Amino acid sequence: MADSQAVLNYPFPNPTPLEPPVEWAELRRNCPVAKVRLPSGDEATLLTRYEDVRTVLSDPRFTRELDTASGAARVAANESGGVFNSSMASALPQTGKEHLRWRRRVGKWFTAKRVAALRPRIESMADQLIDTMVEQGQPADLKASLGFPLPVWVICDLLGVSDSDRDHFAYWSDTLLNLTRYGQAEIDAAQREFTEYMGEHVAAKRAAPGEDLLSALITEDSDTPLSDEELIATGKGLLVAGHETTANMIGKMVGMLLADRRRWERLLEDRSLIRTAVEESLRFDANPGFGMPRFVSEDIELSGTRIPSGTTVVCSMASANRDEDAFDDADEMDLARTPNAHLAFGSGAHSCLGQALARTELQTVLDVLLRRLPTLELAVSPAELERVEGLAVGGLRTVPVRW
């Protein structure tokens, strides 16, 4: 039984890559507001219940302005790799009217209607990558062959980046989300390269605008145009948010669906379940990474526990998505589950800006795989799949498959 006074080491280990840590259920029942110690030595407060996590992510009293806080606020920088302590984080407005201004401008490119128009292009990319995977023979690593390259191709397309620079973008994205994979000197060097590249890219778009997102932001009629620094940070932010998370989710989704062959067979029989299957994969993900840090700007009470101002909380959206009080049969993967108000993309003003794009990529990949490789199966047992270590967003190291 969880002890409300104990300080637990976090993150918790998973029994297997596709199973949730046993601590999640114990904490939801007995200690939903828990003290945790992170690998850096910092302490934070971990939230595991659905209502608490949704409240914090939606409430403006819980801020992302972690660099203004003291003490435990270092958690975000230390445990989330380069994301929260990079120039990207400081250049973009994190709260208030300026954040809303930036979000509205960029968000116009990620509406469901606009993203739907990208679907044929994404489908073509997926077909091309599967062609190459099949040519190279089986077994294959579906993550390396399809899951990893596809989202970076899509983001490069949106930003008007040359196809020849895709590999650079993949590496830069990796270093921004690093926890332990790279040394600090390598991270710093990669981020300098990334910033320099994006600066030159923004300058090129100013000189000769195209039909991409950055060109649209540069040429829009506005009394408050985005600065070069904001444009560079926007490009970097979209890459990080749109590449690594979706790349890993493609691998995890396929892993979950193939781990129990009945799931894959059901989708082959009824393709209309693709949309709800994607949503359920997002909810059911037991390997999502670190969680979302927030800084408490005033005293607040959650689940009967007082959280003092100045605390850094970590929201476990994945634990919240397994909350029995929020989802019937929460530990069962129901491909037809509806409604499905999971928190995989967050909630409130800071919910994932690119969630329509992520959903479209996941749905398209699943649709193309079912069409192209109906006999797809894991080439190892589910228990043999390996977690990625040292990555803020979580994932599987490889997804070995055959067909």
UniProtKB/TrEMBL annotation:
**Keywords assigned by UniProt?**
Heme, Iron, Metal-binding, Monooxygenase, Oxidoreductase
Q: What cofactor requirement does the entry state?
A: heme
**Which InterPro entries does the UniProt entry name for this protein?**
Cyt_P450, Cyt_P450_B, Cyt_P450_CS, Cyt_P450_sf
Q: Does the keyword Oxidoreductase apply?
A: yes
- Keyword Lyase annotated: no
* Annotated GO MF terms: heme binding; iron ion binding; monooxygenase activity; oxidoreductase activity, acting on paired donors, with incorporation or reduction of molecular oxygen
Among SUPFAM superfamilies, the record links this protein to:
Cytochrome P450 (SSF48264)
> According to the lineage, what is the superkingdom?
Bacteria
CDD domains xrefs: Cyp158A-like
Record-linked PANTHER family:
CYTOCHROME P450 BJ-1, P450, PUTATIVE (EUROFUNG)-RELATED
Q: Which family does it belong to?
A: Belongs to the cytochrome P450 family.
State the protein's name. Answer: Cytochrome P450
Source species, please?
Answer: Saccharomonospora viridis (strain ATCC 15386 / DSM 43017 / JCM 3036 / CCUG 5913 / NBRC 12207 / NCIMB 9602 / P101) (Thermoactinomyces viridis)
